[in-house]
Amino acid sequence: MRILILSDIHANLEALEACLEAAPSYDRVVNLGDVVGYGASPNEVIEQSRKLGGPIVRGNHDKACSGVTSIDGFNPVAGMAVLWTRTMLARENLHWLHELPQGPLTLEDVPNVQFVHGSPLDEDEYLINLVEALEPLEETEIPLTFFGHTHIQGGFLLNGEDAAVLRPVYKAPKSKEEFELKLKKEPKYLINPGSVGQPRDNDWRAAFAVYDNDARIVTYCRVPYDVEAAQERIIQAELPERLAARLAHGR
Ligand code: ZN
To answer: How far does the centroid of ligand 1 lie from the alpha carbon of residue 133, in Å?
Structure first.
């Protein structure tokens, strides 16, 4: 089984479409959350995500945009985007967002793998560096976790006493690229497919991953997309300009 793993689309329709067009073949889709927030196409991205199917884990922006939580703890720019998204969402989409399940989620036919937004221990926790990743790596019984939230493609592994950061290596920053990671038997892994709609790892290209459960290979992917069109929509929507500017830099 090949699983297309999407995370942190953040209402960026242009980035999502580019990922779907570029994705190698897959049997099903798992979405790690933050479907909306920041970007200017929340309804379109929700409708596309619903069509792709699930499971879909809820993210912190999904919760705030649908009123599950307040905007407390959001920085002013993110909070403005949440309030804008709330006013734009069609009733049905708002309801759908409100009902998204909390991670970790699992798939019946894919054992020993779990899917979360932040951390297996806390859905809202950021696992940015190895120190932060150690506790969930040690605590979780499940050997392979896919997570999002940080918008940084890569992940972490723990093998006995040894721990390491995983980062795909790319050579052509303006083209579509893939990087394969063959999973070994012994380590526990936390794997981040990166953010479709607002990368923050200094690479502006949309990010996602495909996991081949039989071959035990994670294929990280980066695809160029029409950043200017996504920026233009943000400007037209009168969302904070910073949300448009950052897309060009991937941070
Ligand atoms: Zn996010």
So the answer is: 17
What's the gap in Å between 213 CA and the centre of ligand 1?
Answer: 25
Please compute the mean of the pLDDT values over residues 47-65 and round it to a whole number: 97
d(CA 119, CA 24): 27
Give the residue-averaged pLDDT of 87-116: 97
What CATH number is given to the structural domain containing 14? 3.60.21.10
How far is the centre of ligand 1, averaged over its atoms, from the C-alpha of 95 (Å)? 20
**What are the pLDDT digits (tens) for 201-224?**
999 999 999 999 999 999 999 999
Cα-to-centroid distance, 158 and ligand 1 (Å): 25
CA of 40 from ligand 1 middle (Å) equals 14
How does the average pLDDT of the chain come out, rounded?
97
**What spacing in Å lies between the alpha carbon of 39 and ligand 1's midpoint?**
11
Q: What's the structural domain count of the chain?
A: 1
Q: Is the pLDDT of residue 54 over 90?
A: no
CA of 220 to the centre of ligand 1 (A): 18
CA of 151 to the centre of ligand 1 (A): 6
- How far apart are the CA of 237 and the centre of ligand 1, in A? 20
Q: Which domain holds residue 105?
A: 2-248
Strand order in the sheet with 144-146: 105-107, 110-115, 144-146, 188-192, 154-159, 162-166
Q: How far is the CA of 185 from the centre of ligand 1 (A)?
A: 30
Q: What angle do CA 241, 97, 81 make, to 5 degrees?
A: 15
* Amino acid at the residue 203: D
Instruction: Give percent of the chain above pLDDT 70.
Output: 100
CA-to-CA distance for 205 and 221, rounded, in angstroms?
9
For residue 29, what pLDDT is reported? 98
